[in-house]
Amino acid sequence: MDPEFLWYIPNQAEPGHRGDDVVDGHNSLETLTAQARALEEHGWAGALIGTGWGRPDTFTVATALAARTTTFKPLIAVRPGYWQPAQFAAATATLHHLTYGRVLINVVSGKDHPAAYGDDDQADRYARTKEFMRIVRALWEHPEVSIKGEHFQVTDSTVQPRLPGGHPPLYFGGASDAAERVAATEADVQLFWGEPRDGIRERIDRLRRLSDELGRELPPLEFGLRITTVVRDTTAEAWAEAESRVADLAAGRGLMPRDPNRHAAVGQQRLLDLAARGDVLDDNLYTAPGRYGAGGAGTTWLVGSAEDVARSLRRYQDLGISRFILSDTPYLTEITRQGAALLPLLRAT
Length: 349
Known about the structure:
The chain is α/β, with parallel strands linked by helices. It has 11 helices and 13 strands.
């Protein structure tokens, strides 16, 4: 399968996300459109657009950017509970139809602020996520659906327009046992954060076994990697930049406020534990940022020349990774730099 390379667009109310340029109108339609169009121009397939209460609404941002581009694929992060499955299935089918099949979906079960939007059903979030994904998929695939679950129900429900060319793929993340059981049966793509290759290999093997044990009825699960990539003309320049950033973070000068949930998620804790194994793992996986950063994709970085980083990403690809979500800041600058220097090397294999 040909790999797909996506970026990240930070729909943030506050400027300066993870070191991005602080400019007026940082989250204006013009600024975000400039990033989406730059992605098209420099060979990226699209971008992940994150979700969380307190951010601009992700689906609205994605719709606006899709309307101003021609090939850009928004990977839209969504939360069950914020969305009901029937409304979400209808909205997504409409956008997928209007964009000629450009929509990708990332279903998120991580902690948020559900009380702020009236979501009081958090007792078993992974069971609820499983129901959400099953109902959404059923609505996309069948003309009329009636399902009564523990968390959601629909009766005589249908979604228009129909999607004869196929529905959007469902990306999903999570490293807990409960999350992996959802991915093994319901997801199209399991997303990993930037762990060493031995950890990724172990998780891919486990998810494939789980898929068999749980009787997966979908096509084989695919795998994706979400990671920060610090790329410069030479290896030395890249490491000087990365170490300078970590020094700033250690001195409290960084622009990566700590995520209050950074120790709560199993996947996040796996990343934070990596620093005990060393500041640099594999060839160029930098773990030191996790001591000071926000978490997620900011916890570990691949650092080096374009050749160094391409070599590492190809080794992840050899393990079975086919979807890559990369990023670095300033976002627009790095879309261009890495689009010109890194992507051609990745596509040359």
